[in-house]
Amino acid sequence: MLDSKDITSKKLLVITGPQGSGNHLFSRLFSLHDDVGGWKELNDKYWIPSDEETFAEYWVHPEKLKDFDFSEHNYWVANVSCPFMYDGVRYVPKIKEFADECIRLGIDVTIGIIVRDKNINEAQQLRVRKEVTMPIALDYYYDNLLEYNTHFLDHEAFFLHKSHYLKYISKVLDFPIAYDNPNIMKFIDEDANHKYVKYVDEYWLDKEVLDGIRTKKERNI
User: Fold this and answer.
1) Euclidean distance between CA atoms 17 and 198, whole angstroms
2) What totals of helices (H) and strands (E) does the chain contain, helices first?
3) What is the DSSP code string of 120-154?
4) Mean pLDDT over residues 191-217, rounded?
């Protein structure tokens, strides 16, 4: 529980995204920094059930946040997919109420919404959940979260730019990220999108592009 002397310097980053967008990944990346409290167990395990996340019960019961001990760190990261599983039941997390309760406690709240390629994200949801839940997340975000200090976190940008992207995001969010920690790529063997991408032998526009290149060469352009 926070004392009045503790609340002025606390900052909490809420990471959320549609199921399969990379919540575990981003929670691990943001929790690596020593100054940040969060889902530290993910630094040693590739995957942990969502209802074991540090703030799991508060996505269902945000009113209980008044009893959470924020004193150990000045920076915290909380992670939840939308929807998410808690005790075997699927919930739409009460992110708005969670944020409002934190703000009421005097904590500075920033929200980061993870963006992953729409087609790949939907394919991942069908593979794991057997249904596409993307509309549930997007409707909730648009109706509830854009009024806060909200930023979009790019899944593809991380895999392309890695530590450089994290350094950039640290500045944008004004939040400590251990972008130079060698463990940022722990558990990652390849781009998470790789298994969904197939080589295309031919596309209808290829001939027009090649013909245009040949024409330019013939005209010495």
Assistant:
1) 25
2) 8, 7
3) HHHHHHHHHHSS--HHHHHHHHHHHTTTSSEEEEE
4) 57
CA contacts within 13 A on the Cβ side of 40: 7
Alpha carbon 132 to its chain centroid, in Å, reads 18
Q: What pLDDT digit, counting tens, does each position of 57-98 carry?
A: 999 999 999 999 999 999 999 999 999 999 999 999 999 999
**Residue at 130: amino acid letter:** K
Distances from the Cα of 146 to the Cαs of 61, 72, 90, in angstroms? 22, 29, 23
Is the backbone peptide bond immediately before 83 cis, with ω within 30 degrees of 0? Answer: yes
Q: Which residue has the tokens 């690596």?
A: 32
Q: Cβ(80)–Cβ(53) under 8 Å?
A: yes
Please say whether the beta carbons of 100 and 136 come within 8 A. no
Rounded-to-integer distance, Cα 145 and Cα 95, Å: 8
Give the Cβ contact number of residue 154 at 10 Å: 16
- Please list, in sequence order, all residues whose beta carbon lies within 8 angstroms of the beta carbon of residue 47, skipping any fewer than 6 positions away: 24
Indicate yes or no: pTM above 0.90: no
Backbone angles phi, psi at 156, to 5 degrees: -65, -35
Give 148's contacts (C-beta < 8 A, 6+ positions apart): 99, 109, 110, 111
- pLDDT score of 131: 94
Whole-angstrom CA distances from 55 to 48, 69, 112, 137, 212 are 13, 11, 16, 19, 56
